[in-house]
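User: Show me a protein chain along with its predicted structure.
Assistant: Here is one chain, sequence first, then structure tokens.
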Amino acid sequence: MRTLEWRICIVLLSGLLAACAPAKVASPETAAASASSPPLVCQTDAQCTLKNVGNCCGESLACVHVDQPVDAAAEKRRCEAEGLSSVCGQRDIAGCRCDAGQCVESATANTDLD
């Protein structure tokens, strides 16, 4: 009888441990790098703007070309389909500018999202 009880305990414990296995986690950089279209080249600061490009954390703001197509909802669906998730903080981006043909942040301040 004791042997059966131990076997049941081991099976139950194994199931609990499997349920606690960590999910795949994606970094914001990995998610942003998977964007479907290459970045458009800028020539002036006016061509750069702040858009929600999305990532596995949810909303992710980035400096991109005003005509750059972004689809935050599609990025969210991709993360869900691949079982990716993440907990992330986000920087406050003060503005965007064009630097050597790329839209970049002109200034940032870290935001603590505790």
